[in-house]
Amino acid sequence: MPDTVNGLPLHPLVVHAVVVLLPLATVGVIAIAVRPAWRARFGPVVIGLAALAAAAIPIATSTGDQLAGRVGVPHDHEELGDSLILFALPLLAAAVAVVWTNRTSSRAVLRRTVAALAVVVALANLVQVVRVGESGARAVWGTSTATGRR
């Protein structure tokens, strides 16, 4: 895989797919978890978003490794970035479980339990994507402020 596009590092470009898709998927999971009427209509879309986000993460980590070879390794960001897939895959599973139990289970307790767990998994994803993004921003910008001082 190339590590640049038109002279720009590919990693920041790919990362934006994760930064957009994963939070959208988390909001979608929360929405279908708390609004059962939306599960049939929007569930497949949410599953698709979660799958795309999960698929983008290994590409982002791979391009990040390539970039680190050129500029150095931001260890905190690398560790957090590598762990993000461990959050995204359960989010995908939670989305599938919410939609599947809605279609197959007549037990309201099971549907509510799966929905509640899905919300917890989604919130954990939001926290982790913010942590990864913040560590990446700190690796690039350090402690600089809007005034440009370090």
UniProtKB/TrEMBL annotation:
Provide the alphabetized UniProt keywords: Membrane, Transmembrane, Transmembrane helix
Pfam families associated with the record: DUF2231
Q: Where are the transmembrane segments?
A: 13-34, 46-64, 84-102, 114-133
InterPro entries in the record: DUF2231_TM
Q: Which residues form the DUF2231 domain?
A: 7-145
Regions annotated as coiled coil: none
Know the name of this protein? DUF2231 domain-containing protein
Q: Which organism is it from?
A: Dactylosporangium sucinum
